[in-house]
Predict the structure.
Amino acid sequence: MSVGPVWTAPVIRPVAGSVLVATHPDSNGTTSTRTAHGAAMMEHDLVIDADARHRARPLLSRPAYRRLWLARTISQIGDVAQFTTLALPLITLTGSGLGVSGAVLAEIAPVLLLAPLAGSLVDRLPRVRVMVAADLARVLLPAVLSVWHDKVAVAYAVAFGLSAGQVFFSPAAQSLLPAVVEDDELVAANSGIWTAAVTAQVLVAPVAAVIAVQVGFGAAFAVNSASFALSALVLRGLPEPARPTAVSVSSPFVHAREALTALTGIPLLKVLAAGQFLAALSAGATSALLVVLAQERLGGGGGYGLLVAAIGLGAAAGPLLLLKRIKDPRRPLFVFGPYAVRGVVDLVLAAVTALPLAAAALVVYGLSTSTGNVTFSSLVQSRVPDELRGRAFAGFDVVWQSGRMLSLLGGGLLADAVGIRAVYLLGGLLLLAAAAVSAAGTGAARKERSER
């Protein structure tokens, strides 16, 4: 279960003087050895220097990481303003929750349609240019909505377009990070980006709602338009190592096959994809229907606000705990372990009617969500070769959104037919299954790797 643009997900120049020898599977499945400057692409477990757990602040003193961190934070501020504001005119214009759900489906569709192409291009083009182009393409869309926000069709079209831009921006940004920081700094770097995103969501969402109500929808959408322009401006000065791979013209089917190959070519990624799909089958419905759970069992609208705040509190605390208390956060255990924690929380939510207990459980949920996201991104960045990284992240986007869409459709039907408790019972079981599948698959992948 997740809430809002941050809690749904699941996201550069190397430091001088570091030359690492990395082993990784080639495209033909064999293992080769090569030198990588500033990024390790290893298929064996990596141990993080103890000092790396405390490097979030020093990282911000480096111009390259600071630019990437700042650009993503600025974009997140605009996204939160958009996400918070868009539901308000839609519920007024359509008079139904289905009308609001239409915007969610408009955001999912571009991922399913364009992610394979996006991942393939991200691995063939300079990633900074891809991010700048995605930002500039999105400047005009919220500006259109700031003028014509009284048209449902325009709102859906803009939601589609903004999501299409994000399909290209996100894998490029995630693939770029290992070129900005050392391999043993990835967890700290991802934690810094995640913490800023959660903080933006907590602080900006209420402000955006006030602007929309007191000033007007147009002003709130204009904030998002300006955020993309500013993000592009910040990114333009970000250096990136040369990437010689040429762009080849091929069919969409070839791009889709490349994304699938990127996920299936490395045993660990197959395991992560299976676990993520099961988790998405849970999260889509439990996220969207948290308001229904609050209304029927946990104190109504006021209870819903407290539950969302509880998730935010846990999500903000997660990276701090990860860096200070856990020696090696990138171990697969810290990716699939949070699935089990969140599964237990969903089962608790299905059983309790006391608001304080539910809120306390959701603090734990938010904490495990943030630690899971940070460790997931860091693990993929460490284990996937640079030339496949964009396709891998794009493939994971397709897996997540496919499961989320099925969950949104099935969860609503289940809630109407059986009741809201059934949604959270099933969601908890799916998350426990995700943890079990991931644990078993990781063990098998490690055994296969050791036998090579």
Summary: Residues 216 and 245 are 47 Å apart (CA to CA).
